[in-house]
Amino acid sequence: MASGVLNSPGLAGVGVADLQRYVGLKHSSGVALCFPRNAKASRLRRGLIVSIAGDKQNESIKKLGLSDAECEAAVVAGNAPEAPPVPPKPAAPVGTPVVSSLPLSRRPRRNRRSPALRAAFQETSLSPANFVYPLFIHEGEEDTPIGAMPGCYRLGWRHGLVEEVAKARDVGVNSIVLFPKVPDGLKSPTGDEAYNDNGLVPRTIRLLKDRYPDLVIYTDVALDPYSSDGHDGIVREDGVIMNDETVHQLCKQAVSQARAGADVVSPSDMMDGRVGAIRAALDAEGFQHVSIMSYTAKYASSFYGPFREALDSNPRFGDKKTYQMNPANYREALVETREDEAEGADILLVKPGLPYLDIIRLLRDNSPLPIAAYQVSGEYSMIKAGGVLKMIDEERVMMESLMCLRRGGADIILTYFALQAARVLCGEKR
Ligand code: PBG
User: Domain of life, per the record (predicted)?
Assistant: First the structure.
């Protein structure tokens, strides 16, 4: 069942559910457009205009089976069939001021006045096919809840993970990205566990590809889960993050992931030149078909807090400001875009998502490449927390935030809501 999801029967249903829930369009209102609700006219055969309600005046055209010519003749003779009267103008509340109407040539509300019209003019759509589901994995057998991310778990790579992937595929989410919680004993200053062919990530990729050959697996390329310093690169004794030496490690990591069967490797480290170097390393090993999704504009953001708790990957000292971008910067995202395009990135990613919609739009307007947005852990947790506290409607805010990321210019969205949102789009509750 699960494996058939992407082959359209599931997705056809998704489109309909989408419209109904998120435009408020019900089947009945669509029908009403064609057949005014009060008209007691037969819908069965075209050309049979028949008033079924008793009406003395038009006796002659009441019987069934008149030809078109007879109908026309009746109308020409002044015997137009009865139709419901124009309804009276709805009353305004007592006390409503009486004003002359504003002389407006354009009233944008006209195009919003019914669910069917709103559906017709909707500019952006949202589908489970747009989602990439980030999943945390660990060596354990159990699934461990992540305190700061209600609803998210460190999944046991052999059981919980496989079940979660099956659930996602059932509602049309066939893309995932893996984030490993690495045992402290395997962490080191140079993060060598990152390219252990039998490490947690490559092992998990092989298991998933064995079960679900058509699953699209994205991987994270960065040293932080493997670094005893909690940094994305190798840290020199004076605290400097070493660029080119780190890139060397990242290339080995990406090749190891590709060897295990990864479809898209995603450098999230923000070292200079890593996209080109990884492309060359993949190609040299025969992985020309493996894509690179570059974290092009990744900001040094406090919205990553819950994620670092999930992986226990907080930097042991300092911050990530010498490699991740300054949240105050806009033009700099174009510098990164030009580099990543030139170096051969297949997808450009902006992170975080919602607070950085202007950056998503900037990349969308300046590159023909697909754009990804990462709705990060802090964004997820804020919506969850607001929902739990009953301050906001969690489901509606979730769906709106995802739609806004699409409107901003994202083709795909990495979101911890992928499963929950896809279920909503499919008309499934829980
Ligand atoms: C690290 C990485 C981070 C995230 C994805 N990859 C954290 C960081 O840069 O410190 C954050 C994702 C999230 O917050 O959801 N390479």
Answer: Eukaryota
pLDDT in tens, 354-400: 999 999 999 999 999 999 999 999 999 999 999 999 999 999 999 99
d(CA 414, CA 175): 9
Task: Supply the pLDDT for residue 154.
Answer: 96
Distance CA 248, CA 278 (A): 9
DSSP 91: P
pLDDT(52) > 70: no
The residue to which tokens 């078909």 are assigned:
289
d(CA 198, ligand 1 centre) in Å: 23
144 contacts 138 by C-beta, under 8 angstroms? yes
Q: Six-digit token pair at 404?
A: 């806004």
Å from CA of 307 to ligand 1 middle = 6
Residues 23, 26, 27: CA angle, nearest 5 degrees: 135
The pLDDT tens digits of the residues spanning 246-295 come to 999 999 999 999 999 999 999 999 999 999 999 999 999 999 999 999 99
pTM here is 0.84
> Tell me: the pLDDT tens digits for 7-20?
333 343 344 344 44
Is 277 within 8 Å of 304 (Cβ atoms)?
no
CA distance linking residue 193 with residue 312, whole number of Å: 16
Bridge partners of 348? 294, 371
Mean pLDDT of 62-68: 78
For residue 30, report the distance from its CA to the centre of ligand 1, in Å: 45
**Do 218 and 133 form a contact (C-beta atoms < 8 A)?**
no
Confidence check: pLDDT of 344 > 90:
yes
Arithmetic mean of pLDDT over the chain: 88
Q: Which residues are catalytic?
A: 298, 351
Q: What is the CA radius of gyration of the chain?
A: 29
Inter-residue contact 221 to 250 (CB < 8 Å): yes
Cα 216–chain centre separation: 15
Yes or no: say if 258 and 286 are a contact pair by the CB < 8 Å rule. Answer: no
CB of 224 closer than 6 A to ligand 1? yes
For residue 343 and ligand 1, the question of a CB distance below 6 A is answered with no
